Amino acid sequence: MGFFEYKAVTPEGKVVEGTLEAADEQTVMTRLREQGQMPIRVSSSGGAGGLAGSLPFFSRKKRVPRADLLIFTQELSTLLKAGLPLDRSLSILAELTENQYLREIVKDVLREVKSGKSLSEAFAVYPHVFPKIYVNMIRAGEVGGALDEILQRLTEYLERGEELRGYFVSALIYPAILAAVGASSIIVMITLVIPKFAEIFENAGAPVPLPMQIMLAISGFLVGYWWLLVILIFGSWYLIRRRLKTSEGRLAWDRRLLRLPILGSVYQKLEVSRIGRTLGTLLSSAVPLIQSLNIVKDVIDNQAMAAAMEPIKSGVKKGEGLAGPVRDTGIFPPFALHLLQVGEETGRLDAMLLQIADTYDRELRTALKRLIAFFEPAIILIMGLIIGTMVVSMLYSIFSINDVPL
Asked: Which CATH class is domain 164-406?
């Protein structure tokens, strides 16, 4: 990836200049055409301007937490709604932003805006901070003269994403702690407590009962060959991760995830909600449908569903609408397809897509609550059975010593 300077003509006939990060010049020209601009000149900048060029490589790729980006968007929207000019608003945020890295980026964006660049062009220099959906919605707001409204929609979009992410994390904390404590208890008993019984039976000259023999064998293996287990775990993790880095491996993995008996439907609801919210937000911000589908493809985590965006785009270009091609791919559940058709027929596609997102957000929360309600007692039951079996085996072994003749 490198930075390229470009000069292009907008649909209104205005000549604009800017900088984009891309793999090559052809990619830059493709992006410009997707945005409705006609490229005049594209050349390598030999490094990004401003902060992006002055920071070290690892600093340029540093991520900004979503929560900090949300706060920045909220504050920028509030300042613009209050009637402050864009440069004045950015100047205030450059002083108020708590995240040091984001503060430096805002200062650089302010310099670019004062030099004549648009806000979307300044944001586009930092794709690792401002994602495609962010930049394209800002660009749509600039063209339509409704930047404050677009920022408000962006705020709502980011808020919903953070809210859902926070719900997932908080919901999984207790089961994770429960599983960790139970696993730790089992490991301590197997590696520290069980080996003591071997010494007791050896000193007493008593035969070791079968249940204790099994546990002593497991304990001996874990104590003597723990390094082998560590190698197997990390080796498997490395091979799986390497496989997932390939497009074929990731596609096969994501398809299997969608076919899982219980978790597959939950995962599908998550992706359908993400598609609906992203596409609905973009369309309500006057971003063209084809360009919106390209952005949605980059936003989706599941590559099996992301791959479906290409046939959907082809169908839209042929004039088949959106609901028909989406139905052919099979990525949307029947209820979501019904809402999509209603949205097309009534001319309220953006509103219906957001309704789909809200509906499946609620269903996702309900499904997650049910899963946790199932897994919490299941974890307790499994851990209880394992620890209970170990305790009963130890008690049986202790009582069997009394049967040894003196």
From this structure: mainly alpha
Residue type, position 21, single letter: E
Q: What does 190-236 look like in DSSP terms, one character per residue?
A: IIIIHHHHHHHHHHHTPPPPHHHHHHHHHHHHHHHSHHHHHHHHHHH
User: Measured between alpha carbons, how far is residue 217 from residues 81, 120, 208, 387, 389 in Å?
Assistant: 71, 65, 12, 17, 15
337: exposed, middle or buried (Cβ count in 10 Å: 0-12, 13-18, 19+): middle
Choose among 244, 196, 245, 243: nearest CA to 219: 196
Residue 14: Cβ within 10 Å count:
9
In angstroms, the CA 192 to CA 209 distance is 19
Domains in the chain: boundaries = 1-47, 164-406
Q: Which residues, including other chains, have CB under 8 Å from residue 208's CB and lie 6 or more apart?
A: 197, 198, 201, 216, 397
Closest to 116 (Cα-Cα) out of 15, 33, 29: 15
Q: Give backbone dihedrals phi and psi of 3, rounded to 5 degrees, phi first.
A: -105, 135
Tens digit of pLDDT for each residue in 332-378? 888 888 988 898 888 888 889 889 988 988 888 888 888 888 888 88
* SS3 state at 332: coil
- Cα(315)–Cα(325) distance, rounded to whole angstroms? 6
Is 53 a residue whose pLDDT tops 50?
A: no
Dmax over CA atoms of the chain, in Å, equals 105
Whether 309 shows a pLDDT value over 80: the answer reads: yes
Report which residue type is found at 247: S
Q: Is the pLDDT of residue 49 over 80?
A: no
Q: Which residues have CB under 8 Å from 77's CB, separation 6+?
A: 148, 151, 152, 154, 155
Q: What is the spatial distance between Cα 364 and Cα 15, in angstroms, rounded to a whole number?
A: 46
Where b means 16+ CB within 10 Å and e means fewer, 231-240 reads eeeeeeeeee
d(CA 145, CA 140): 8
Cβ proximity of 108 and 52 under 8 Å: yes
Nearest to 302 by CA among 244, 357, 239, 354: 244
Which residue type is seen at 110? Answer: L
